Amino acid sequence: MSPDVSPSPPHRLRGMTQLEMESLLDTNGFERYRGRQLYQWVQRRGARSFDEMRNLPAPLREWLAENTVFGGVESAETLRTSSDGSYKFLFRLEDGRKVESVLMPDPKRGYWTQCLSSQVGCAVDCKFCVTGFNGFFRQMRTDEIVDQVLYARRHLLEDQPGANYRNLVYMGMGEPLLNTDNVLRSIRLLIDNDGINLSPRRITVSTSGILPGMEELASSGLNVKLALSLNATTQEEREEIMPITKKYSLVDLLEFCRNRQIGRNRVTFEYVLLAGFNDTPDHAKQLVKLLRGIPCKVNLIPFNPSTLLPWQRPKTEDVEEFSRIIREANLTLSVRWSKALDVDGACGQLAGQSRQRGGSRGMDLEQKPRPEAIQKSLGDLDFFATVTSDDDENE
Ligand code: SF4
């Protein structure tokens, strides 16, 4: 486990398990069962101050205030709500860095899905992603990842009591499988029955294709879902938009998906349709060929155009033809047109806005966007729900 995942020192409560809290209190002369109470305040109820913890004796609360910190996010700016009712959070971390998260509703099914960040910046450099070309700054710690959930859930329930906060996707800033220590640990905390208690089947980890991380996830025993951001049907084309393919080849990624399973779930292949690059009938046929024999779902995401970026959204008839070929091959398919054109929920955009406003340090101010800046459209809000929803219908 990397050093910054360690709860000690300092003891960052938001990243600690119940056992760790029990041991901490035990070794410092308090009754062990107080650790369970503390855990419930911190992880189940999402307490943000020791004063809230009314069933803990005053000396213990004082000791906690002197010897521990909550950790997590320091503050959040809820930027605005789009016409579809989504919330967007720009979280400020203790070192002044900023990461983003989006919480979106699925009015049809009546639940909410949150997209989490897992790194500050990203080293993977996908050519359709603002976060990628801004570069990598640091891993997010477990407490920071978990606290995005607690903060957003509390905000939602205060705003809309009774709202059904349900699905999570690791699809915000960063490549989650290059931060597996903290991501896997955060998932364990998020699904803990005594804590936040989310269903693992409603958690999706989305990757650009980091094979060792995919292997680690498969071996973890966690029954979560995997989404692989595919976006091309040949090694050459994928290398062009996702240079990581030089290290982990398309063939090896598909081989993994064919032979390994994450939990009991089908893998989702994300495919952003970029006009004139990967959206022809031949690409669709090639995709069908590549996915043959893999239990999977396909999510097509017609690119969401931007004046900043060279890519264009494909024509509707091209998307329809692409979809027809996929459907006729009996692959489970969703096509997600962004309906959130008035929001900036895509990966890297919220922190990017902050940079333009001069609103943050580090990543946002130190590096200038490169001219080939390409917006990531995987972050289309509608898509977040799609990844986690299909299996729910079959539950
Ligand atoms: S799409 Fe994801 S993996 Fe690729 S550069 Fe952006 S944040 Fe990193």
Structural key phrases:
single chain, DNA polymerase, domain 1, TIM Barrel, 2 domains, 36% helix, disordered C terminus, binds iron/sulfur cluster
Provide a brief overview of the structure.
The protein is 36% helix and 18% strand. It has 395 residues and is an alpha/beta fold. The strands form 3 sheets. The chain has a 10-stranded mixed β-sheet with strand order 3-4-5-6-9-10-11-12-13-14, with helices on both faces. Strands 1-2 form a two-stranded parallel sheet. It has a two-stranded antiparallel sheet with strand order 7-8.
Describe this structure in words.
By secondary structure, the chain is α/β, with parallel strands linked by helices. A ten-stranded mixed β-sheet has the order 3-4-5-6-9-10-11-12-13-14, sandwiched between helices. A two-stranded parallel ribbon has the order 1-2. The protein is 36% helix and 18% strand. It folds into two domains: 3-69, DNA polymerase, domain 1 (Orthogonal Bundle), CATH 1.10.150; 75-393, Aldolase class I (TIM Barrel), CATH 3.20.20.70. Residues 122, 124-126, 129, 131-132, 173-175, 208, 347, 376 line the site of iron/sulfur cluster (SF4).
